[in-house]
């Protein structure tokens, strides 16, 4: 006894595309050729732009010049912002405000704000030290 074949399910977009192609095949082929020609022209533009970018040494729009230590600090403070307020909530719920969820939540909010303030402070100090280094380099080059 042969098994019945399972029908292939199509997405709604695929179903409308095939319906349009069967109704007017000349439009379907025109649309396909239009998509292919626009894709070719965009590929040609991107390859010529890539060659020009190599010649001019202009950084690409998606390229990042962010130092690694900045990314590390961002991930560190992101992890702290995730863990420390939750930890503060449960510690204050169990040991400080026994059973008072509202008070423990307020503690968690305060701790989250302290972590954010610490991140802003560290970023500010780092920016000030970077500016001082650039000024010192400028004075050394001039002198």
From TrEMBL:
<comment type="similarity">
    <text>Belongs to the VMA21 family.</text>
</comment>
<feature type="transmembrane region" description="Helical">
    <location>
        <begin position="97"/>
        <end position="124"/>
    </location>
</feature>
<feature type="compositionally biased region" description="Low complexity">
    <location>
        <begin position="9"/>
        <end position="20"/>
    </location>
</feature>
<dbReference type="GO" id="GO:0070072">
    <property type="term" value="P:vacuolar proton-transporting V-type ATPase complex assembly"/>
</dbReference>
<comment type="function">
    <text>Required for the assembly of the V0 complex of the vacuolar ATPase (V-ATPase) in the endoplasmic reticulum.</text>
</comment>
<dbReference type="GO" id="GO:0033116">
    <property type="term" value="C:endoplasmic reticulum-Golgi intermediate compartment membrane"/>
</dbReference>
<protein>
    <recommendedName>
        <fullName>Vacuolar ATPase assembly integral membrane protein VMA21</fullName>
    </recommendedName>
</protein>
<keyword id="KW-0968">Cytoplasmic vesicle</keyword>
<keyword id="KW-0812">Transmembrane</keyword>
<dbReference type="Pfam" id="PF09446">
    <property type="entry name" value="VMA21"/>
</dbReference>
<dbReference type="InterPro" id="IPR019013">
    <property type="entry name" value="Vma21"/>
</dbReference>
<keyword id="KW-1133">Transmembrane helix</keyword>
<feature type="region of interest" description="Disordered">
    <location>
        <begin position="1"/>
        <end position="56"/>
    </location>
</feature>
<dbReference type="GO" id="GO:0005789">
    <property type="term" value="C:endoplasmic reticulum membrane"/>
</dbReference>
<feature type="compositionally biased region" description="Low complexity">
    <location>
        <begin position="38"/>
        <end position="48"/>
    </location>
</feature>
<keyword id="KW-0472">Membrane</keyword>
<dbReference type="GO" id="GO:0012507">
    <property type="term" value="C:ER to Golgi transport vesicle membrane"/>
</dbReference>
<feature type="transmembrane region" description="Helical">
    <location>
        <begin position="74"/>
        <end position="91"/>
    </location>
</feature>
<keyword id="KW-0256">Endoplasmic reticulum</keyword>
């Amino acid at each position: 006894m042969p098994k019945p074949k399972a029908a292939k399910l199509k997405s709604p977009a695929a179903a409308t595309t095939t319906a349009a192609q069967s109704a007017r095949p000349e439009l379907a082929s025109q649309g396909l050729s239009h998509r292919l020609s626009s894709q070719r022209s965009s590929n040609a533009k991107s390859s010529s732009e890539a060659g020009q970018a190599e010649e001019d040494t202009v950084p690409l729009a998606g390229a990042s010049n962010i130092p690694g230590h900045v990314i590390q600090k961002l991930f560190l403070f992101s992890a702290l912002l995730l863990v420390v307020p939750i930890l503060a909530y449960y510690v204050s719920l169990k040991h400080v405000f026994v059973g008072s969820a509202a008070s423990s939540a307020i503690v968690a909010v305060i701790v989250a704000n302290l972590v954010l303030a610490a991140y802003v402070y560290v970023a500010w100090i780092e920016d000030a030290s970077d500016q001082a280094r650039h000024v010192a380099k400028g004075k050394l080059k001039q002198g």
